[in-house]
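To whoever picks this up:

The nightly regression suite flagged undecaprenyl-diphosphate phosphatase as changed. Nothing in the input moved, so I suspect the structure step. Input below, exactly as stored in the fixture:
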Amino acid sequence: MLLHLAELDRRGFCLLLFWGKKYRLTPIALKLSTSGNGPTYLYLAVLLLLLHRDGQSFFNLLLASFMLELPCYLLLKNTIRRTRPCHCLPAGLVHDFEPSDRYSLPSGHTAGAFVFACAVLQVYPQFGVPVLCWAALVGGSRIVLGVHYPLDIVAGMMLGCSSGYWAGQLLQG
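Regenerated output under the current build:
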C-alpha cells in the first residue's frame, strides 16, 4: 500500500512538472511561491491590524495559528527528512530553483498559506474561498518548481488547516 502511494506521488510529481514545462508555468509558479513567503503574512496582518476593525482578531488568530504550526512543521520536517525531488533527480529535469532547506515533507509554503487562508476564513469569511484557492495554487507552484511532491503539499495543507482550526478553537475559549 505504501509503495503504491509513493509511486502515485512520484507519478503525480512528474505529471505536474511536465505540465509546468509544457505550458511554461515557471514564471507564474515563482510569483505564486513568492506570494507565500513568510513576510507576506506579517505585512498583511499588520496592515489589517492598523486599518480594519477586525484586524486585532485576525492578527491574534494568525499569530496563534503560526505558534501551533511552526513547531509541528519543524518537528515533522526534521524527523521525516524526506529528500526534495530537486535534490534527487537528474540535473535539468527540475528548475534551477534552490529551496531554503533540504527536506520536503511537509511543505512549509503550503502550510503557511493554509494557516493564512484558515485565519481569513474565520475572520473574513467573505474572502475565504478566493484565499483558499490561492493557498492551493501556492502549493501547486511548489510542485511545478520541483521542490515538493504532491503528498508534501497535502501534508502542508493538513498541517496549516489543522493549526488554523485549533488556534481558532483555543481563542474562542
